[in-house]
Prior knowledge:
Blueprint: H1 20-49, E1 63-65, E2 68-70, H2 81-102
Antiparallel strand pairs: 1-2
Helix pairs in contact: 1-2
Amino acid sequence: MPISLGAAKEGDAGHWCASKTACALVSGERAVLHKAAELYLPLRACRKTLPWSREPHPGWLEGTEWGKEHSGRPETPGWTLKQVRRYDELFEELRKATEAVQA
């Protein structure tokens, strides 16, 4: 069934929808996306403080192999149990929020 899009009415905050139900859905989707964006910020900030590898790793030297240059990585002890828990909690919150967007 085709949707008829009506003209915007005064007080519609500069947008138009096919119906009040459609406007409510758009508004709800925006809220979910906004929530996901808010959850991404602390996850990203947390990730910036962590060592480059979750697991202990000896790292590698900078060099060229098969004609490709690659940067080196220093040795890392990996993440602590506290860091793993915090990151996983933040990631799970974000995953749940984005799951609602994809549904």
